[in-house]
C-alpha cells in the first residue's frame, strides 16, 4: 500500500515537472521571438514602459510588429505598417514567424466602416473591431492572429481595388463627430494624423503616422485654389513645425480632427474655427496622394 502511494506521488511530481518545463519552454520561445501580431481590438502604444505613460499611438487588431527591446512585460515595438515605435504590454501580442511578418505587409482585407465589426474567439468571447483593423489570413469566414482563430461575423472590406475619388468623401465623413484623442486611431478617439492615416488606409494608400512624417510623402499642390477633394493640408506652429493635418473636401472646406472630427472653412491663412471665432491652424502646404 505504501509503495503504491509512493509511486502515485512520484508520477504526480513528474507530471507537474513536465508541465513546468513546457511552460518554461513556451515562455522562453515567446521571449526570444522577434515578430508578433496584435491580438486585441486596440492596444495602446506608450512613450515609456509604464501604464501611466503617455499614449503616443495605438495598434489595431491584426497589425504586425517587430520587437526592438524588452523590459519585463513591456516591449518596445515598431509597427510593421507605418514604422511607428512605442512601448506595449507583451500580453496583447501573439507570436508570428518572420515569413508571416513579411506577408502581413500585403494585407488588403480590413474591418469595414461599421460600428458592429464583431469577431468571435475560440472560447466564445467577442472582440469589437474598429474600421481599418486587419483581418490576417482571412478564409471561409475566419481570420488568424498567430495561432489564434477568430470567426469573422461581418463582410470584410477590400482596399485593393477602390476608386479613390468616388470613396474619399464618404469614408472621411463616416468618422465625423468622433472625439479628438491624442495618439488615437479608433472609433472612440482619433488624433488629426490618426484620422487621416485611417481614412487613407481604408482606400489602400499607406501614410506615415504623424503629421510631420506624412508631410514628407505625396506630391506638392501649388496653391489652395488648385486643391481638390482628397488632397491633404498641413499646418504649422510659430516655430515652423508641422503640428496638424486634415483632408480637403474642396478648396474652401476641410475635414479634420480638432476637438472632434469636423468640417471647417479654410482659406489661404488656414482653418477658421467658427466656435472660437478665429483662425485655429495656419496653413503651410498641401499634398496630393491620389
Structural commentary:
The chain is an alpha+beta fold. Helices cover 22% and strands 37% of the residues. The strands form six sheets. Strands 16, 17, 18, 19, 20, 21 and 22 form a seven-stranded antiparallel β-sheet that branches. Strands 6-5-4-1-7 form a five-stranded antiparallel β-sheet, with no helix packed on it. A hairpin with a 2-residue loop joins strand 18 and strand 19. The protein is globular.
What average pLDDT do the residues reach? 92
| Global outline | globular
The share of residues in extended strands comes to 35-45%
Oligomer: single chain
The CA-CA distance between the termini, in Å, is: 82 Å
- Residue share in helices? 10-25%
Instruction: Spell out the helices and strands N to C.
Output: HEEEEEEEHEEEEEEHEEHHEEEEEEE
**Regions with pLDDT < 50 over 5+ consecutive residues?**
17-29
Radius of gyration over all CA atoms, rounded: 23 Å
Number of E-state strands: 22
Structural class: alpha+beta
Largest sheet: 7 strands, antiparallel
Number of helices: 5
Secondary structure elements and pairings:
Blueprint: H1 2-32, E1 35-38, E2 42-46, E3 55-60, E4 64-71, E5 74-79, E6 85-89, E7 93-95, H2 98-103, E8 109-110, E9 117-120, E10 126-129, E11 142-145, E12 148-152, E13 157-158, H3 164-174, E14 185-186, E15 189-190, H4 192-202, H5 211-214, E16 219-221, E17 232-236, E18 242-250, E19 253-258, E20 260-265, E21 270-273, E22 278-288
Antiparallel strand pairs: 1-4, 1-7, 2-3, 4-5, 5-6, 8-13, 9-10, 9-12, 11-12, 14-15, 16-22, 17-18, 17-22, 18-19, 19-20, 21-22
